[in-house]
């Protein structure tokens, strides 16, 4: 390796460490605003884009955005790139809380010159899948409320929707799954098992298909355990889809300040190996080092 190559390696190693340190520092409330205002200047992001390449560039640029702006960035590219990235829409809209949805909708409008997220979803998707996405994007899910009596009624409605499968029943199904609180849905799923003798996720998988089905299943998984949902998506992206880089990058970055430690734990419990191990097996070079730095350990 000549001197120029060595300097390039050292520079990129330093960039990984710098951005990782930034992510740690930006969690401190009293300095986070100042840091983010400093580092999010266009010239710095442009410098990363100009001097890096491929997936390593995607990681480093992605780490520069606050969570809401990163979600907005991913949603924009999912709908305005070549084709619609339905899996990205499903992952983000099925898993975010009401405050997170409000924040990335605002960021979406600001970043994309007044574009409205709901309008873009409406124009880029269709059918009951679109209806459910639009419902989730409202960010009006009930919070902290659970009524055992209503859970039994919800279970009966869900069971009927799985049996009859008309357009009206699809609407009722997505209204319940997209609007009821997680606590309410948890009880409804238990009641559904009692009423039908079947797990609701299996029933949805058997009765429906396509992206509408995938979205409903994602909601169910998030209700049950959100870290397990992301662990599953990471495993699927690495082992079933031939290492789907965009999905892996997006999950690691978007969850790095929220629940990545729990995701790592669920990944190891479910698949008998660490997330760190699998990333190291499939990646190499600075891209590998950047992802492992986000992963933060082999526990």
From TrEMBL:
Any single Pfam family the record assigns to this protein: Annexin
Cellular compartments per GO CC: cytoplasm; nucleus; plasma membrane; vesicle membrane
Regions that span the bilayer: none
SUPFAM superfamilies listed in its UniProt record: Annexin
Alphabetical keyword list: Annexin, Repeat
InterPro entries (UniProt xref): Annexin, Annexin_repeat, Annexin_sf
GO terms for MF: calcium ion binding; calcium-dependent phospholipid binding; phosphatidylserine binding
Family: Belongs to the annexin family.
Name recorded for this polypeptide: Annexin A10
Organism: Latimeria chalumnae
